[in-house]
Amino acid sequence: MKYSVIVPVFNRPDEVDELLESLLGQEEKDFEVIIVEDGSQVPCKEVCNKYADRLDLHYYCKENSGPGQSRNYGAERAKGEYLLILDSDVVLPNGYLHAVSEELEREPADAFGGPDCAHDSFTDTQKAISYSMTSFFTTGGIRGGKKKLDKFYPRSFNMGIRRDVYQELGGFSKMRFGEDIDFSIRIFKAGKRCRLFPDAWVWHKRRTDFRKFWRQVYNSGIARINLYKKYPESLKLVHLLPMVFTVGTIFLNLMVLCGIIMFCFSSTKSVGCILLLLGLLPLLLYSTVICIDSTRQNNSVKIGLLSIRAAFIQLTGYGCGFISAWWKRCVCGKDEFAAYEKNFYK
């Protein structure tokens, strides 16, 4: 067997239904599917039963331990030459597996991954979140399929790896967040070949509302500091940018507030007006760029406007998590921790 598709699931039966339906339509058929229910209160067993006679499908239910350990549980039971790690909130185009096979035939790889994009059926909020996670103006476009990379670190929503390499490296660590980057770092440290497969893309729903999106990116900021404590060399200048953006945004908003106060209650109204303009202009300029670019990509002014909110949530949420983790781990010297651990997946 060539591929084992491994999917950890927590309370997402409807999304598992969509994923399994997309697996039915794959042009390439040499694969099995392993669903690992990670202690869900709303299980997807009935959904899986619908596909039991149409897919080589294996359903397992276990106590909650997080997505990384659930992937390891599935990998222990996999038979494929390659393990394809997917999140339960992705949907595959019909040519996904074919694109993976073509890339492997063209140039072998020990590990690989692909980009993601938004499906037409996604809500406007989901499309705005997808834009913020893939745009050049928020992430540099790396998650959107940027081809010219010195190193590509696969993410667990769309990751592939040879089963023997997975076993050699011991799979995912027990980190609750950032476990996919931790695994990718260990892949490189072991001298393995890791590549981006730009045509092996998925539709990725990510979070369904901005509150959940904030929690996600906040925890990503925490994970970056936890990764830094394990691998100091992994922290790059680009990882500091959301923190700089967050501090800058706070500073600019304080300038706006001071400008309003001085304009309304002080005799130096001109100074207040200058402070107000200096604080507002950078925020308005960035918001305008985001709105125009997202509107152009999504053909929707509404999504363009929502993308402004998504971009600020992404960058400031990540920045706040990063600053919080830096203070607790690097300044106060506390052990690894994870915010929102109990409700991260809710």
Kindly describe this structure.
The chain crosses the membrane at residues 237-263, 269-292, 304-327. Residues 4-169 form the Glycosyltransferase 2-like domain. Its EC number is 2.4.-.-. The protein is α/β, with parallel strands linked by helices and 346 residues long. The protein folds into 2 domains: 3-114 and 154-208, Spore Coat Polysaccharide Biosynthesis Protein SpsA, Chain A, CATH 3.90.550; 233-331, no CATH class. The chain has helices at 13-24, 45-51, 67-76, 96-106, 124-134, 136-139, 163-169, 179-189, 210-230, 237-265, 269-298, 301-331, and strands spanning 3-9, 31-38, 57-62, 82-86, 90-91, 111-113, 116-117, 158-162, 194-196, 202-204. Residues 338-346 have low confidence and may be disordered.
Brief descriptors of the model:
346 residues; alpha/beta; Spore Coat Polysaccharide Biosynthesis Protein SpsA, Chain A; seven-stranded mixed beta sheet; three-stranded mixed beta sheet; globular
